[in-house]
Automatic annotation (TrEMBL):
Lineage: Bacteria, Pseudomonadati, Pseudomonadota, Gammaproteobacteria, Lysobacterales
UniProt record similarity statement: Belongs to the AHA1 family.
Pfam families found in the cross-reference section: AHSA1
InterPro entries in the record: ASHA1/2-like_C, START-like_dom_sf
SUPFAM superfamilies assigned: Bet v1-like
Domain Activator of Hsp90 ATPase homologue 1/2-like C-terminal positions: 23-157
Name of the protein: SRPBCC family protein
Superkingdom of source: Bacteria
Length: 184
């Protein structure tokens, strides 16, 4: 399950499931604490109340050592990039949902939404990530990106060296293009 591809559950929605080492409070901390989140996804503020302004500051080239440079189409985002949003729902330590936009102040109807749910399963935690309201031209990048970031989260929680972000993302984006029948 921890390397399983995301599943397209609707034309604009992809879902990932990962079974991670617990306890649930530890996984939750890696979602909401900016310093811990920066180890696998992106740092930045995230007030945990509905309407709280989310800022994610991506530094993908710093997530792992010995990585390849970003592919040409992502070169301007090799070690930068920002996403903005608002908290939609927060029920610690089981649910976190927020809107996702590349531009602050964009109309909410155009924002996609990211929802994490956590469920204890023995000494493990089932993390389910669902990203909805995606534009078709975002799907490959988002699928490869979440798959790679979640792999780095698993590496981090298991105490392993993080897999190379750009090398992994490039491979996974090609796999998703084939699996989903979308030209990359």
């Amino acid at each position: 399950m921890n390397n399983a591809h995301g599943t397209l559950v609707a034309p604009d929605t992809i879902r990932f499931e990962r079974l991670l080492p617990g306890p649930i409070e530890r996984v939750w901390a890696h979602l909401v604490d900016p310093a811990k989140r920066a180890l696998w996804l992106a740092g930045g503020p995230m007030p945990l109340a509905p309407g709280g302004e989310v800022e994610l500051h991506f530094r993908n080239a710093e997530l792992s050592r010995g990585d390849d440079p970003a592919p040409e189409k992502y070169r301007e985002y090799e070690n930068s990039g920002e996403v903005f949003g608002q908290i939609v729902a927060c029920d610690p330590p089981r649910l976190l949902a927020f809107t996702w936009s590349d531009m602050p102040g964009e109309p909410e109807a155009e924002d996609s939404e990211v929802r994490f749910t956590l469920e204890t399963q023995g000494d493990r935690v089932l993390l389910t990530l669902t990203h909805t309201r995606l534009w078709s031209n975002e799907l490959l990048s988002v699928a490869g990106g979440w798959h790679t970031h979640l792999g780095i989260l698993d590496d981090t929680l298991c105490g392993r060296e993080a897999r190379p972000f750009w090398r992994t993302h490039t491979q996974l984006e090609a796999e998703y293009a084939e699996r989903l029948g979308i030209a990359g």
